[in-house]
Amino acid sequence: MFRLAHFSDVHLGPLPDLTYRELASKRITGYINWRQRRRVSLDNGIIDRISEDILEAGPDHIALTGDLVNLALDKEIEMARLWLEALGSPHDISLVPGNHDAYVPRALDKICKAWGNYMAGDGATGQVTRDRFPYLRVRGPIALIGISSARATAPFLASGYFTKKQEARTARLLQQAGEQGLFRVILIHHPPVRGATGPHKRLIGIGRFQDMVRQHGAELVLHGHTHLASVHRIDGVGGASVPVVGVAAAGQAHGGAKPPAHYNLLEIVGVPGAWQVQLRRRGPAKTGGPVVELSRQWLVSTDRTPA
To answer: Is residue 60 part of a domain?
Structure first.
């Protein structure tokens, strides 16, 4: 059995002090949102408890699908780097960036430099850059393919992008991993599903992504961005059903408009053509409570109807 932990949208806080120069950009809208909404709805204590539970569960690997920071300030990026290093080694954690990590121009370049070891493919050398996505990592029977949908956008937009260039590279990795009989997991921040989020937050290139999976296949897609516990499905090769799994924001407090924080623990067993995947969601059931199992369902099974 391979156990893969997945969480997302950590939005580490509190915000450091900002200068007027730093606010003279899209950050002013994000700062207002933080002051009025996000700082109230987030609870960094939950992040600590979830992180501890993940480490106690001892997964074979951890997948993080973006939005470690809020406004992509230099101090936030450095704080997130230290947090990542405390969580685990780059070999054991695979990260893709979210829209908040690329909040303003040049922020994506900075996070690639600071967090690059967590976003580097096997055998990669040199500095990770935005042009190095997608990346491929193989851990046991699992192929992790990390895509970057992050790009700086105009105020009031949080769109993601899946470009033709990434499609071509991702298709080759999917084909290669499929021929090796590996269980292929795609990591992306924005959900590649129509209607999963509002038009101003959607992934541009959903059709391109789905056509790629339909032609080359995948076994599982993990995403963040929506702050929701969700399971969608898209078509794979030959009409196979590919689960697309979302997760609540890792720092979301109880009592907010979105579901409280949890993480996904995915248990993967089997061989090509007979994989079985069980999804367990773990998080605090009440404010200040311990992390417990909140739900359990089969995503793929040879003897059960997929949920």
So the answer is: yes
- As a whole number of angstroms, the distance between CA 46 and CA 26 comes to 28
Taking the C-alpha atoms of residue 175 and residue 267, their distance in angstroms, rounded to an integer, is: 23
Residue 137 neighbours by CB distance under 10 Å: 21
CATH number at residue 72: 3.60.21.10
Residue keyed to tokens 């915000």: 15
Cβ pair 301, 269 in contact under 8 A: no
In this structure, is residue 104 part of a structural domain?
A: yes
**CA-wise closest residue to 68 among 106, 35, 95, 31:** 95
Is residue 122 in a domain?
A: yes
d(CA 124, CA 121): 5
First to last CA, the chain: 20
Q: Per DSSP, what are the bridge partners of residue 4? A: 61, 266
Domain that residue 197 falls in: 2-259
In this structure, how many other beta carbons lie within 10 angstroms of the beta carbon of residue 223?
30
Residue 166: pLDDT above 60?
yes
37 in a structural domain: yes
Task: Tell me if 282 sits within 8 A of 265, measured CB to CB.
Answer: yes
pLDDT tens digits, one per residue of 174-197: 999 999 999 999 999 999 999 999
Pairing verdict, β 231-235 and 203-204: unpaired
Contact 73, 18 (CB under 8 A): yes
Model pLDDT, residue 307: 43
